[in-house]
Design goal:
Pfam families: ABC_transp_aux (PF09822), DUF7088 (PF23357). The chain is an alpha+beta fold and 555 residues long.
């Protein structure tokens, strides 16, 4: 009896000691194959150095289908991981909009959330043989020092199945939340510096407004005047948006030396010019920007052609009269390809990205360039036709039914990432007496460049009646938002710092679905096992325990 009491007291003492120790020592073990509960190093660094408290309100909760419930659990697990790194500086709560029962109060809440940038999603489900519709908010609001930013948690490629899209959203939870925290907490001193090259495009500033506003949320934005003497310095990245004016030799030299010295560059460049399109037609003319030799040295070539793709976005067109009024219909416009092919790349720029829409796209080829790794990121569909410039482009063509057999020119690259040590175009061309010889480098440190053969990828539409710009990638005719802005911002994030928060986009969570046929066939057996199994185990444990006690105390 005395030994039993001693053992009991020892167990109690051990439990008390473990509880006291757990208050001072915290550790987690991630035993999953994909390390799904382990935050990226950049996220850990961000959270460990938070200057002040961050609060997160999550509106994805309540009575949800299993897929959305899994996404909700992923958000909570991620936020628990954030708290493990940041301690009390991270707080969060889940708010269910359905808890507001008053119709007027609920409508006010919905309006308020939409004003804050959080938009609802209609969720359809079948309950008891009835089709039900429910409004959910798959997002969160991150707040810091009086500032806040919305976070969309339901993101992924809409061409994927609903299950795959939810899994892609699951994979992106850490990135979406961490990038929002980074956006709010970073100061002017620790921001990267992005330079916008102007003076080479006739596109009005309003057509770039959404992208530039988004860049300014995360970076210090500067405007580069290439006519000023001297090199490009003090910048982490140069953005070249849809140039339509040729570069001079001196400007080419500045770009060359900026990259050779480790600067990063992002080009959105056309291979042809299309000024306007009419029903009768206009010609796409070859566009010479004097960048060919520089791009060729880096490892790519933009061709003087225009792509027609069967996988395309529509445009409104008058297809005839309906009574005494014109009959306007949306018809496929094969010069506006939807770029939903990201090749075999697992680069975080395009991982789980939705479709990107292009306008009058040219093709891009890769060429031999020593020491440069080339990664195609944006590609057309396999069902394409190429027109060499000058090429006739007419709206009347959209009225005709295309012959799929003529769209057989395969997949073509539209955007390519280049990484490595770049060789200068001016190597062996700068003489000792040349004023540019001072500080000239023929080969420098490793850098990164991304070149896209469509300048319109980063141009937003404008509502001219209200004089307000539409979001980048928004199609005002179909009310669809393409991923053009996500692509551009991901590209800037990766080019500037590939080991930053964007590294979290590489997270992979493998779907392991059950075999539905086997589950349905053995449903009764599995249900019986789940119901009776725990009871049987308890009975066996109790029986063994009684046998042991009788042997020990029966004598």
């Amino acid at each position: 009896m005395k030994s039993a009491l001693s053992r009991t007291l020892l167990i109690v003492a051990i439990l008390i000691a473990v509880n006291i120790l757990s208050a001072f020592v915290f550790f987690r073990l991630d035993l999953t194959q994909e390390k799904r509960y382990t935050l990226s190093e950049a996220t850990q660094t961000l959270l460990a150095n938070l200057p002040d408290d961050v609060h997160i309100d999550v509106y994805l909760t309540g009575d949800l289908p299993p897929g959305f419930k899994r996404l909700e659990n992923a958000v909570q697990e991620t936020l628990d991981g954030f708290q493990a790194e940041a301690g009390t500086k991270i707080t969060y709560r889940f708010i269910n909009p359905d808890d507001v029962t008053s119709p007027d109060a609920k409508n006010k809440l919905i309006d308020k959330l939409q004003q804050r940038g959080l938009f609802p999603t209609n969720l359809f489900d079948n309950e008891g043989g009835k089709r039900t519709e429910k409004l959910i908010f798959p997002g969160a609001i991150v707040s810091y020092q009086g500032k806040e930013t919305p976070v969309l948690l339901l993101k992924g490629n809409k061409a994927a199945s609903p299950q795959e899209q939810l899994n892609q959203s699951y994979e992106g939870v850490e990135f979406q939340l961490a990038s929002a925290i980074q956006k709010l907490t970073q100061t002017k001193e620790n921001r990267h510096r992005v330079g916008l090259l102007y003076g080479h495009t006739q596109v009005p500033p309003s057509r770039f407004s959404d992208l530039l506003a988004s860049i300014q949320q995360n970076y210090e934005l500067f405007f580069i005047d290439m006519t000023k003497p001297g090199p490009i310095t003090g910048l982490d990245l140069v953005l070249v948006p849809k140039p339509d004016k040729a570069f001079s030799e001196d400007e080419i030299f500045k770009l060359d030396q900026f990259v050779v010295n480790g600067g990063r560059a992002l080009f959105f460049v056309d291979g042809q010019r299309v000024d306007s399109v009419s029903n009768e037609g206009t010609y796409a003319q070859p566009l010479s920007l004097n960048l060919d030799d520089l791009f060729f040295r880096w490892g790519v070539r933009i061709n003087r052609d225009v792509v027609k793709d069967l996988y395309c976005a529509p445009v409104p067109l008058n297809v005839g009269n309906l009574g005494d009024k014109p009959n306007i219909q949306l018809v496929p416009w094969r010069f506006y390809p939807r770029l939903n092919n990201f090749g075999t790349s697992v680069n975080p720029i395009v991982r789980n990205l939705d479709a990107v829409v292009g306008h009058f796209v040219s093709t891009l080829d890769t060429v031999r360039s020593t020491g440069i790794q080339k990664t195609p990121l944006l590609l057309t569909s396999p069902y394409t036709k190429l027109l060499k410039t000058p090429a006739l482009i007419s709206y009347n063509e959209a009225r005709q039914q295309p012959d799929p057999q003529t769209y057989n020119e395969g997949t073509h690259i539209i955007g390519c990432l280049l990484e490595g040590k770049f060789q200068s175009l001016f190597a062996n061309r700068i003489l000792p007496g040349d004023p540019r010889a001072a500080g000239f480098k023929a080969e420098g440190i490793a850098s990164r460049i991304l070149i896209c053969s469509d300048g319109d990828l980063i141009i937003n539409d404008v509502d001219y009646k209200r004089q307000t710009p539409y979001p980048l990638g928004f199609d005002r005719y179909t009310r669809t938002t393409y991923a053009n802005k996500d692509f551009a911002l991901n590209a800037i994030d990766y080019l500037v710092d590939p080991n930053g928060v964007i590294e979290a986009r590489n997270r992979t969570v493998t779907l392991r679905p059950l075999d539905k046929i086997r589950v349905d066939a053995g449903r009764t057996g599995w249900q019986a096992l789940n119901l009776l199994g725990p009871l049987a185990m308890l009975g066996i444990v109790g029986l063994v325990w009684q046998v042991i006690r009788r042997r020990q105390y029966g004598q």
